[in-house]
Structure formats: structure tokens, C-alpha cells
Amino acid sequence: MIFTKTAIPEVVIIEPKVFGDHRGYFFESFNQKEFEENIGKINFVQDNESKSSFGVLRGLHFQKPPYTQAKLVRCIKGKVLDVAVDIRKKSPTYGKHVVVELSEENKRQLFVPRGFAHGFVVVSDEAIFSYKVDNLYAPECDSGIIWNDSKLNIDWNISESEVRLSEKDQNLPMLEELENPFI
Known about the structure:
Blueprint: E1 2-5, E2 12-15, E3 19-21, E4 24-26, H1 32-38, E5 46-53, E6 57-63, E7 71-77, E8 79-86, E9 97-103, E10 109-112, E11 116-122, E12 126-133, E13 142-144, H2 167-170
Antiparallel strand pairs: 1-2, 2-10, 3-4, 5-12, 6-11, 6-13, 7-10, 7-12, 8-9, 8-11
């Protein structure tokens, strides 16, 4: 596996070594030892999967303490633009974001550490998205930031009229409106 730091060094792109032939392909999607050597110790406790169609935007989500989550995400089918936003107030990259294309073709994964909001938009007809998390879901700690916060200035690479949101995601606050738990 190749581990590549992004413009926000704690957010890491992971590219597997893919072995393919006339039968198909094989790759290791997770290796605890390599992960710990390149990123650090982590204990993933839950795997999640979602299926969405073109224009579905999920995010920008995070959980507040004590249920903050780190995530290891990948797109199994289709293609998404994946976004991680630094919401750690004392961080030099607070309010900055990383955008990475994840697809069934490139088989990339993205590690999103605790203290980041996360979201993605489907840019193929359909996508199956998978993620590991290192803490259980706690509805009372669920929070987020509105996807089109003008101060974040995220280019989602599709027009606003094509974006499809849940009711919850339509009503999320802007970053500056958060009572930030990551101070």
C-alpha cells in the first residue's frame, strides 16, 4: 500500500497494490500493521456501507465528543468526490478542506481523522460507499456543517441544482455557527 499525505497532513490517501489478470483482481483493502506504521494505532469498531445515485451529497458530518470518529472510507462501486474539513479550532488548517476522488477504478481510500467533518457527493450514476469507523454511532452526538458553506468554498464539481440532500443535511449550520467541541 502507498500512503500519501494530503495538504492537511493528518488526512491520508491510501492506494492499494492491485493484482489483476484475466480472472479479475485482488487487493488488500486494510492491513493493521501497515496502517499503524504509516498513520498510527487505531481500533476500527464498525463498518458501514451506503448506496446512492448521482447527485446525492451526504455530509458534512461528524460526531461530538465523547463519540468522535476517525474514518477510513472508499468507494466500492462508481465514483465520488470525498471531502474532509478540519474543524479543530486551534489547528493551523482549521476550516481548510481536502477533496479526493474515490472510485471503483482507482481503489483509493481516504483516512479522515477525528476532528474533521466528512462528506461525499456521487458523480457517477450510482455509488456504493464503504467506511470503517473507530467509535460507535451516537445519535445524541451527531452533528454537521452545511455542504455549501461559503466560507469553506468547496467545489463539489456538480451544479447546485443537481445536488440531492436529506432533510437533515439541508438544515445543518455553517462552520462559524457551531459550538465547536474540538477547541
